[in-house]
Amino acid sequence: MASKLELNDLIRRDNFIDGKWVAAASGKRFGVTNPATGEVIADVADSSEADARAAADAAARAFPAWRDALPRDRAAVLHRWHDLIMENANALGRLISLEQGKPFAEGRGEVLYGASYVKWFADEATRIYGDIIPQQQRGKRMTAVKEPVGIVAAITPWNFPLAMIARKIAPALAAGCTVVGKPAEDTPLTALALVLLAQEAGVPPGVLNLITASRENAVPAVAAWLHDSRVRKITFTGSTPVGKYLARESAETLKKLSLELGGNAPFIVFDDADLDAAVTGLLASKFRNGGQTCVSPNRVYVQSGVYEKFGDMLAKRVAALKVAPATDPDAQIGPMINARAIDKIARHVDDAVAQGARILAGGKRLDALGPNYYAPTVLLDATPQMQLSCEETFGPIVPLFRFDDEAEAIRSANDTPFGLASYFYSQDIRRIDRVSRGLEAGIVGINEGALASEAAPFGGVKESGYGREGSKYGLDDYLSIRYLCQGCLE
Ligand code: ADP
């Protein structure tokens, strides 16, 4: 196989189990649609429990040899995978745009971002250290070593179809775990393409297995893993209700869990902020992927002294954003993923307006472009009673809440069961210290809207979940500690 592929060469329609591309045992398939047009791009396997079990069987067979492989050999496979992803960044970026809808520049950006995790964990694979514990008794030696937890089940969402799965598979393989995965039903093609490149990179049969399924069949298929005692870990990115369900269902076999769940990120602009920087930071963090990002600011709190001015500055920039399908090279915001997403956005805006919010920009569907487009929107006079205050909108909507003092801003920001990302803009060094400690969130952006990095620990607190992806901490979720106590040494 040539290593540089065209988009069509990257499309796979079958499951990948034990190193082979196989149809679902039932022979069933379901269609993947382009959210920009509603057209079916490809039919992929609609898997059931039988396929999930076959994947787990393969992962169990492959585990001992992969666990015992030299770390540097696992690293070499991951480095080759990284290089192949980079060589095919353009085609992968186009595939992401095709099935997920984001503009090509963002699709390609996601490829580079996902690849950075593969490289990071390829390097980390060779740095999994244990400890020699200071001696406690004569004649006894105590050591702690790290070992892979076993088979990992990875379940991923549609908003970053490459990055979300790459940053689960890479640390799992680096740690010596084997993987069974299921991507979101809206965007399985990118994950299949990634697995194709992993196969070419030399990932041994059974070490990485991927099945696809419609939402209906995903539930029993994933349940087969949840109840399988050989599967030792679930790593999931998605909604909080599904995360809680996975935790409940896997409790019987006490699996290790990493749950990267919903957010409801606050973004606070204080009177003393650099307003230009705050607008730029808000645009970067809010409109990435059209607002369909779990770290997207959902509630923007602006102090009364700069409220109107900030609203005007923001509305000007937002009104200039170009909404278009990914095929338009100038597109900055694409279609939303599906009808369910666009209905929720419209419901939130309608509810806010009914409760007194004023529209400064946008506020409507863009039906001329297609059924899944919504104009980027700025709303003034948002209140905590509005739906968009308590639910994650997951779209290009910026509601501006007014506040008077710092304590009120922190209280409002924390008034949510979620705690993933948070952001604030201020130039007062003491305030920066207070607010960065006061916000209940796993991630805090201080005068910065772009926080993502493979070198940083990504994850939440409260009902945004637990576990961290990326950074030196990211491998811990895939490792357990074995304590060795050796006696009779004197
Ligand atoms: P979203 O609302 O963004 O689609 P979900 O949490 O519903 O987020 O989905 C994230 C991932 O979890 C997808 O791969 C989806 O197929 C999967 N999923 C959703 N519900 C279940 C379930 N009950 N059991 C197993 N997997 C599920």
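^ adenosine-5'-diphosphate complex. The domain at 265-453 is CATH 3.40.309.10 (Aldehyde Dehydrogenase; Chain A, domain 2). The first strand starts at residue 15 and ends at 17.
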